[in-house]
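Course assignment 3, question 2. Fill in each field.
Student: A.L.
Task: Predict the tertiary structure for the chain below.
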Amino acid sequence: MPAKASRVRRWLKAGKAKVVHNDLGIFQVQLVEEPSGKKTQDILTGIDPGKLFTGVAVQSKGGTLFLAHLNLPFKTVTKLRRNYGGTISRHGFRKGDYVKAVKAGITYYGYVSGNTKTEVSVSNANWKRIGRFTTSKVQLLQRNTGLISTVGLSNLTTLNFDRLNCREVEVSGAV
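Answer field:
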């Protein structure tokens, strides 16, 4: 139980307590003889949960004994999720739309990440740009839902799909 510094000095001088060392570097004493009373102190613990931070406190009638402010890891998680959509570009696409794009005979699948006057920029689920494609070679597969998935839309295509490189792969032989 916490004690006033003057009382602890009297205990040490009278030999009623000894200094105990700990790894935290906190000064503490331990009574070496029986205490004069057996009274205990009521202590309450409170937790204040939040979205980005959580507060923890240990409180007694006399004051706050312990106070902690925890930073939760959810701030970095929310940064990974981008909320795209809303305004339709001149080409009929929104940022985040799932599209199929063809360039040099290779078909790519990805998400619209931007556009220019004549081209649409397509990126994978981690927003690494796959390339810029002519508008006429880009086909909308699914409107932006606000959720970017690395799984792909396997129910919309029956083509063999290389998920790592976001493009179709030719397979020899009958399937």
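Instructor remarks: The longest strand covers residues 106-115. Confidence is low (pLDDT under 50) at residues 152-164, 169-175.
Grade: pending
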